Amino acid sequence: MIRQAVPADHPRIHAIRMGVRENILTDPSLVTEEEVDWYREHAIFLVAEEAGEIVAFTCANHQNGLVWALFVDPEREGRGHGRALLDAALTKLKAAGNAQAWLTTGANTRAERFYRRHGWRDMGHSLDGQIVFIKTLA
Ligand SMILES: CC(C)(COP(=O)(O)OP(=O)(O)OC[C@H]1O[C@@H](n2cnc3c(N)ncnc32)[C@H](O)[C@@H]1OP(=O)(O)O)[C@@H](O)C(=O)NCCC(=O)NCCS
């Protein structure tokens, strides 16, 4: 089940973000509470539940097409949560008028392979060494 995130979800969302084994948040101060609240209150912030527990989440910016976050509990990978959440976020980005979505991710990760399989186009590396991917929202 996919639904809108609410403030009470934050402890579980935080635990998933800190529990992933790739694209690890090395400096937690880079993600502020204000940013997280903004995504929940003004942009796109969705969670996926399995048996009543949050197992994955995504955040996207309807103003510029950025998929800011997509994280699945490592114990629940490979069950379609990533794909379902990303599809839902892209549908919302398109409905908000975006012709293209974009994101950055670490090289040589499961996420890199995941985005390539799902038709994202590699635009090369950003200054911080991440791969920039774009996708046309047809
Ligand atoms: C990258 C990431 C988001 C993928 O999420 P996921 O939920 O494991 O991905 P999915 O299950 O949707 O798809 C992965 C593969 O699992 C398999 N799969 C999908 N649904 C499945 C199901 N119902 N049952 C069994 N296997 C399934 C498929 O092989 C699928 O590949 P396909 O989409 O080409 O068919 C997740 O691994 C993750 O959070 N990684 C760590 C954090 C990270 O790097 N995030 C990205 C930051 S930019």
Automatic annotation (TrEMBL):
One of its GO terms (cellular component) is ribosome. Signal peptide: none annotated. Keywords: Acyltransferase, Ribonucleoprotein, Ribosomal protein, Transferase. Residues 1-138 form the N-acetyltransferase domain. GO terms for molecular function: acyltransferase activity, transferring groups other than amino-acyl groups. It comes from the Bacteria. PANTHER family: AMINOALKYLPHOSPHONATE N-ACETYLTRANSFERASE-RELATED-RELATED. This is Ribosomal protein S18 acetylase RimI.
